[in-house]
Write a structure and sequence with these properties.
The structure holds two protein chains of two kinds. Chain A is mainly alpha-helical. Chain A has helices at residues 2-32, 39-55, 60-89, 94-113, 141-163, 165-175, 177-182, 187-213, 221-234, 239-259, 267-281; strands spanning 131-134, 137-140. A two-stranded antiparallel sheet of chain A has the order 1-2. In chain A, a hairpin with a 2-residue loop joins strand 1 (131-134) and strand 2 (137-140). By secondary structure, chain B is an alpha/beta fold. Chain B has two domains: 1-80 and 156-238, P-loop containing nucleotide triphosphate hydrolases (Rossmann fold); 92-153, no CATH class. Chain B has ten helices and ten strands. Chain B has a six-stranded mixed β-sheet, sandwiched between helices. In chain B, strands 2-1-4-5 form a four-stranded antiparallel β-sheet, covered by helices on one side. In chain B, a hairpin with a 2-residue loop joins strand 4 and strand 5. In chain B, helix 3 (96-103) runs parallel beside helix 6 (138-150). The N and C termini of chain B lie far apart (37 Å). The chains are: A mainly alpha, B alpha/beta.
Chain lengths: 295, 238
Amino acid sequence: MSLFIQRMFDGLAEGSIYALLALALVVIFRSTGQLNFAQGEIGTLCAFFASTFTLSGLPVWVAILLAMAIGFLIAAFVERVVVRPIENRNPGAVIVALIGVFLAVNQLSAMFWGVDARSLPSLFPTNADSFFRIGDAAIRWERVGIIGVLAVVVVLLFLLFNRTKIGLAMRAVANNQESSNLVGIRVGNILILGWGLAGAIGALAAVMLAPSAGLTGTLMLGPFLYASVAAVLGGLDSPVGAVVGGLLIGLLKAFLIGYVDFLSDMLFPVMLVVLLSVLLFRPAGLFGTEKVERV
Amino acid sequence: MSENLLEVRGLSAGYGQIEVLHSLDFHVADGEIVVILGANGAGKTTTMRSVSGMIQRSGDVLFDGNRIGSARPDAVLRVGISQVPQGRGTFTDLTVEDNLRAGAYSVKGSIAADIDRWYDVFPRLAERRDQRAGSLSGGEQQMLAIARAMMNRPKLLLCDEPSLGLAPIITQNLFKILGELRDEMGMALLVVEQNAGLSLQLCDRAYVLETGHIVASGTGDELLNDDTVKQAYLGGAG
């Protein structure tokens, strides 16, 4: 039982990283209809920045906020300079361009930070005794901290989307760009903002993961794939779905590794099965909207 | 000239290399209902989109003392022009109430009284305030589209084929509501339509648009009794 609880927290913490990344993917997919292939790599780049900031003596939380700001700027730049000009000419080509951004960002971080692992301190205590007990289960504070970060992001996003005029504009643009123009929303600015927001959330996911996973150029490669499956599972246009999907994938992974020995080396094939099952039997995902409308 | 709320001179517009509107002149006076009548492909929607700033256009557009011939949609809204687009254009994934809030995006200050007011005018919308707009019927969506446009507190409301896809009885009711809005608020209306019968009865004046040219104009009654208009838009009866 104590092992089960420990694995559950492992799964939830890892799932929180996927959930953050999936949230970033969903925020962009809703507004632009594109899967941002470069999302993970932008996060990795930001984590490298954060590591450099902490080395220069800045407190971890300041380094994280700065990294998120950089993530915001990079993603906003990608939207304005890469995505929009191409989308106006050939929407189908955007995904190819985003794979290009993925490769470019990946190599840029290798160029400036090398290929050896860097260290990034955690925002939370990571000493040998930084845990608490539920029965016999030892739960590390870092795990709980990461889950808490996800909770804070979810609450802030909920307030942004549902309680502010900007959030209303973001939902309107996601639904109908033409009509958004007609009610006076500057669609271009909202798109930049959405991408920037996703960039910041993706950066947050990377700096949460880096302390335990080790900061290298491939930090977000696996998590990006898990987060993509999570986003499809939850529904690509549903922020709630991204969170639930991310946590479910995290739990699935933790329990497979813990309890199903022969599958623990075949996690990606398992994810493929999950992905195909969702697409075949519930294409809109658990929380996505199926497009049924009266006219 | 200056007493006209909207004054359009030499308006040309199109898409890419193709010019759809060829130097249109028309105007709308304060509190007037003006219809632009045209068949499919005449350029009705393009005319609307040119006035509301949704597409590139050339020519002079004067509104209430403002030159808006090259203004962006958000600037056109701020001087007091709202558009009800063809096919309603409601935010189908948003609730009815969020649609109304979005309509007031350019309005500064509290909009609670406006929302209540349009719920009074359209009680059906009040009943469905928390439902997704996509779940409304066509007639309800048209009401929502009008209410959303009115949330901007316009001096001029542009309506792009409000009758499209609606049953005749619903269209009649809709035109009645549009007439009442004008009477109560002194707002002007510019409506493009291919439904000549109803729209000519509603309007003060009308223009006939054919392949991007204005080919006739007059009061609603004059055009209702005009032989060419009868032939082309009223089923040739008479």
